Amino acid sequence: MVAHLVGRRHQVEELARVVADAAVGDGALVVLAGEAGIGKTTMLAWLADAAASAGMRVLAGRAVADEGAPAFWPWLRVFGAGRDLGLSPDLLELGDGPPAQARFVAIERAAGALLAAVPAAGLLVTLDDVQWADEATVALLRYVGADLPGARLVIAVATREAGAPGQLGGLPAARTLRLPPLTATEVAEYVVGKLGGKPKKASRQDVLGLDMIDRFDKGNFHMRGYTGDDKPDHCAHIGLMADIVRVHLTPRWKSPKGRK
């Protein structure tokens, strides 16, 4: 079952469209961009679930912030997991000769094999933490990304960089989705849902429903603090969040019966 993501309606709709387009042979390169902890990995997981539910095969890789990581490290994980599709990490081995030429040959060979391995139902490749990817990894992304139109292949990458790494955003099939901070209302919905509560609307008896929270949200509060202009200050935001927990959640720490 594909999970519901709070505050990501636009991104979810775009990713659902990407999955639907891939089914009819219109592949895409999706770049999810945003600051650390904003939810890029969660969005990749949502996309993977949606693609799997549509019958697509899913392969995943992740870049690491380690100078000892070999060239193509995220792709090596992807190709290793796709052996049953005819893929293999050996396709990315650098042969003899000048380094630049050897890398180009490996990229061309691996890209051709990946496109040929796409099943009839489609293939999704996710690459996380691309801000740490080596040049060879990004070069292969660019090479494959240029051939995605007309293929049932979707490549989705997550990066902290404001601009798409290696000019990926300029490719014909590229779609960049930026993940902004959640608003106060969205944070409220997330907190209520995570702790087992249910959102409810304000009433005369209870003025702390989510529609009241939405009024506070007009100043564009977000998770990292107040960014509004001529609106309630950050202390008001903190107080509001305390009220959310008090009013919307059923306490799990009820005192023993009879104790005052």
Describe this structure in words.
By secondary structure, this protein is α/β, with parallel strands linked by helices. It folds into two domains: 9-178, Rossmann fold; 184-248, no CATH class. The chain is built from eight helices and five strands. The protein has helices spanning 9-23, 40-53, 73-81, 99-116, 135-145, 184-194, 210-216, 234-248, and strands at 28-33, 57-62, 123-128, 153-159, 174-178. It has a five-stranded parallel beta sheet, sandwiched between helices. Helix 5 (135-145) links the parallel strand 3 and strand 4 (153-159). The radius of gyration is 23 Å and the shape is globular. The model is unreliable at 215-235 (pLDDT under 50).
Summarize, please.
This protein is α/β, with parallel strands linked by helices and 260 residues long. It has eight helices and five strands; from the N terminus they run H-E-H-E-H-H-E-H-E-E-H-H-H. Strand 3, helix 5 and strand 4 form a beta-alpha-beta unit.
